[in-house]
Amino acid sequence: MGAHGSNLDDILEEDMHHWYTKFMKESPSGLITLFELKAMLEMNGMTEEASSYVDQVFFTFDMDGDGYIDFVEYIAAISLLLKGEINQKLKWYFKLFDQDGNGKIDKEELETIFKAIQDITRSYDVPPEEIVTLIYEKIDVNGEGELTLEEFISGAREHPDIMDMLTKMMDLTNVLEIIIRGQQQKKAVN
User: Fold this and answer.
1) Could you tell me which residues come within 8 angstroms of residue 69 by beta carbon, excluding any fewer than 6 positions away?
2) What does the DSSP 8-state code read for residue 49?
3) pLDDT tens-place string over residues 2-31
4) Is 0.85 topped by the overall pTM?
């Protein structure tokens, strides 16, 4: 498998029991539904964009499309978010941004996702419109108003400022913290 693959396997193996215990406490059935994920993230009062974003995250992680996130999908998601390589993350970002699944990201899709992320993180430093304009000015070299996967990946890699902005905006550490905090609160109540 190669040195990097086995290193990642070693890291995951160390944490595997921890993650499995956490997953099974939260979802004794061994499956997480979209409804359960939204409950974990305390989605009450969130905007429609934020709710739509969580839907998109869920469906991106539900790799087999059965309507559930099982333990293997859960570990794959955690692994990608915490330890994934740049290209893996960029492919995941692209899949997340491509809401209609047509293989291209248009400005509206990107702006919707960034608004949703800001609603969830409650971080409104830069207006989504400005972020989208910057990304398209630098990456959409053909001026089509849409980005293919190849354009998106090469553009992000060629422009460290965009890569840095995407990495910061797509950092879901706070989402994982909400899940963990929610699990700790449930333990305290029980």
Assistant:
1) 31, 32, 37, 58, 61, 62, 77
2) H
3) 333 444 455 455 566 777 777 787 788 888
4) no
Residue type, 64: D
The torsion defined by the Cα of 39, 40, 42 and 47, in degrees rounded to 10, comes to -70
d(CA 143, CA 136): 8
3 state SS of 105: strand
pLDDT greater than 90 at residue 102: yes
Task: Give pairs for 12-18: CB < 8 Å, separation 24+.
Answer: 12/75, 12/79, 12/83, 16/75
Quick: pLDDT tens for 37-46.
777 766 666 6
Confidence check: pLDDT of 189 > 80 = no
Pairing relation of β-strands 104-106 and 146-148?
Answer: antiparallel
Closest to 64 in 3D by CA, of 54, 56, 72, 75: 72
By the 8 A CB rule, do 111 and 129 touch? yes
